[in-house]
Amino acid sequence: MRTNILDALGNSLLSVEKPARYVGGEYAIIRKPEDTKFRIALSFPDLYEIGMSNYSIRILYSMLNALEDVACERVFVPAPDFEELLNRKNLPLYSLENARPVRDFDILAFTVGYELSATSILSVLDMGGVPLRSADRGPGDPIVVAGGSALTNPAPLSNFLDAVFIGEAEQVWSELIEQLRDAKTKGAGRRELLELVHQHPNIWYPGKSEKTSRAVWQGFGCNPFFQKFPLPGMSAVQDHGVVEIMRGCPNGCRFCHAGVVYRPHREKEIDIIMEEAEYLFHKYGYREITLSSLSTGDYSQLQSLVDLLTARFSDRQVSFSLPSLRVNSFTLPILNRISEVRKSGLTFAVETPELAGQLSINKEVPAERIIEILNAAKKFGWRSAKFYFMIGLPQDSESTPQAIIDYLEEIRKKTGVRIHLTVNTFIPKPHTPFQRSYQLSEEKALNTIHSIRNGLNRKLYKFGYHSPFASILEGLISRGDERVGGIIEKAYYAGARLDAWEEYLNRDLWRKILQEESWDPISEVSRPRSADEVLPWDSIDIGVRKSYLEAEYRRAEKGELTDPCKQLCRHNCGACDDEKGIDLAQPALNDKPENKVQPIENARKFKRFLFSFTKEGPSRFLSHKNLVTVFQRLFTRQEIPVQYTQGFNPKPKLEFAHPLSLGVSSYHEVAMIFLDEDFEPREFSRLCNTSMPEGMRIISGTFFDFPQGVKSVMSYYHGSDYELKVRRNFAETHEQEIQNLFSPHLDTPLEQEENYVFRFFYPDGKADVKGISRLLRSSFTDNLEEFELTRIKTYFRSEHPDSVPVSLPGSSSGP
After folding, report:
1. What is the 3-state secondary structure (H, E, C) of 90-105?
2. Cα–chain-centroid distance for residue 276?
3. Where is the Radical SAM core domain (predicted)?
4. Which residue, 110, 476, 526, 692, could crosslink 696 as a Cys pair with Cβ 3.0–4.6 Å?
């Protein structure tokens, strides 16, 4: 059953933080027909702004919606305030595409990136009307499937998941969904569909007798990924385009879980990367694009790639960032080239400062090399750098805290850069050479962190750390067995939510749950494991031989380095065979950068251009800051010839007459840009209206000269006509209060079947006039859902003070 969520929730959404999380309607959203045969609810189990930043969910959403008669719709975790609102309204958690309750899908699929999502998974199940335990689900419930790097030990969540997919989803997941769709079309019920899921070699489920193997997508390097994914209206945490240039990593860092899970490493061809970057620019309007991988600096053709990208895009105000550069793959020419449009930060993941520790983890990061890099970077304008260290690694000693201090002090004194330091606690993850190691206790981790912080001058360093207690929980879920599932369930029912967020993590709640157990969960999962001990994750064949992991652990104890993976590799780890192996990108056929052209602005004459637009439906819940970003990306992807600001981060020159408060609808918003005077105004409206979020539409536009002395569209604003709809019962009992609130601007109300409609002109610049939304909020805090406020028309001041105000030339208003 579908629900019109805006009708069901209305202005009660204004009682929660960031209501745009829950309304959908973004540009490029995909809505399949109501009669689509097979439906999948896809969830990254976190808040909207985190889930929309995740690359895996973009892949899955695009891939599944490309299938015939398959609909994939997004579901994210509700924040506590929205969870309370849903409960109060007796509404289930729903998808953003069609507001369909989670329980009404054929499959509920989770892609899980970190272990502290465990209670969030239960939140989606519970709020969506799906029984938490798989044993309690019946014919009318969806099949609950999960995958992702955080589930290479599925045992702790085995009570809640019907199946766990191990590995990379491209190709094999699409094939499985097509089989399920066809089976359902022929009449198969939930039990038959689940049996079909369990037959897949890359699917794990409780009680499976044989090992589950990991799926590897060997077509990564030669298949472009053109995402078909909604563009977030509100800001996502990582609000930029992403091109994955390499999957996996050649460096065998012994602590790194992802480095094992994504073996063998595969590089994407340069021409495909260029195609994907062009697509993100033209389809989505991204002007910041990340070249993503576990170790971007190890991409074999990086210099050629950076030269080609920068030459093609820098004059279009597009910048590229390289987030994962190892010190030994760091080159200043690359860094300087990539920063021609705007500079990104310098980040060094050192992990451990002493040579013995670096040899143990198979990652050398000499301070001398960092000093060399930073001194060279200062010449190009960099003044600060971020450093990451881990504590509790197997080779750490009592001297490690002081060694970290000495390491950083040497760098600071010899470079003069500002240092931002973050310290994390090491967690021995499954399927790594250190999987049997001891995990540092919370008390020891805090003591080590305080030793480091107290040894640094706080005026010279910015210091942060990841909560050691959160690391203990992460270790519990990543290294535990089936018993941990009971702890997760108790914590959820006690109120645990969104545990990856510092502001939501309830330590006292978790401590109480852990203390009530008949066994000692923390000691059990933190202890070292013997070489012959069966591990909870031994049922998963990750593709790397256990003998190789054991050999790497012995090399770590001896302080011996292991060479990076190569195509003719002698490591014999098991990740490569006749069907899968390392793929390296070929040199570009034309590796000479394109000749730069002069920025097009130099050849154009720009003129003020006023345009009006609507802001209704889900778009009324976008903040003004979000709205600015919506237009910036709109102008980019539609190649509207607007003028940009100068300086570090160029943006289109854009100004609004009178920004609306959150939640207020409008039939007539007015904004101004500087547009090429030869551009046809009707073409502006046509182009923009082909790719706007739901509820937004360009009404009209015109070149416009301000009267003498007027410098901005905001200073030219005079006031607006508004319409205030109030539910009839509430209006009849509060009419006098409403009249008093807006007098003398209020007209006689119109009576409708369900509402009273008050219309009034609200002027700008009056000392006795406050913002309408603030008036309503302060006067009717507990009754905001009784009101619906809409701006009907916007007026400018005329040239003569005594004359009638004027509206935007050529504009119209009203629904």
Report:
1. CCCCECCCCCCEHHHC
2. 19
3. 235-459
4. 692
Topology adopted by domain 600-807: Alpha-Beta Plaits (3.30.70)
**Closest to 251 in 3D by CA, of 342, 347, 165, 328:** 328
Q: E strand or H helix at 370, and its extent?
A: helix 367-378
Architecture of domain 240-344+565-596: 2-Layer Sandwich (3.30)
Given a cut of 80, whether residue 675 has pLDDT beyond it is yes
Name 725's bridge partners. 757, 788
> What is the residue type of 750?
L
pLDDT tens readout for residues 190-234? 999 999 999 999 999 999 999 999 999 999 999 999 999 999 999
Residue identified by tokens 């049996």 is 195
Please classify residue 802 by burial: count the beta carbons closer than 10 Å to its beta carbon, then call 0-12 exposed, 13-18 middle and 19+ buried: exposed
Q: What is the 3-state secondary structure (H, E, C) of 303-341?
A: HHHHHHHHHHHHHHCCEEECCCCCHHHCCHHHHHHHCCC
Contact 49, 237 (CB under 8 A): yes
Q: Classify strands 418-425 and 384-391 as parallel, antiparallel or unpaired.
A: parallel
Do residues 392 and 429 touch, judged by C-beta distance below 8 A? no
b/e code 245-263 from CB counts within 10 Å (16+ = b): bbbbbbbbbbbbbebbbbb
Q: What are the pLDDT digits (tens) for 41-77?
A: 999 999 999 999 999 999 999 999 999 999 999 999 9
φ and ψ at residue 603, rounded to 5 degrees:
-100, 5
The residue ranges of every structural domain in the chain are 5-213, 240-344+565-596, 600-807
Query: What is the predicted pLDDT for the residue at 746?
Result: 73
Does residue 307 contact residue 337 with C-beta atoms inside 8 Å? yes
Residue type, 222: C
Of 138, 54, 123, which is closest to residue 93 (Cα–Cα)?
123
What pLDDT is recorded for position 219? 93
pLDDT digits (tens, 9 = 90+) for 423-453: 999 999 999 999 999 999 999 999 999 999 9
Q: What pLDDT score was predicted for residue 731?
A: 85
Residue-wise pLDDT tens digits, 708-735: 778 888 888 888 899 989 988 888 888 8
Write out the CATH class of domain 5-213: alpha beta
Question: 507, 398 in Cβ contact below 8 A?
Answer: no
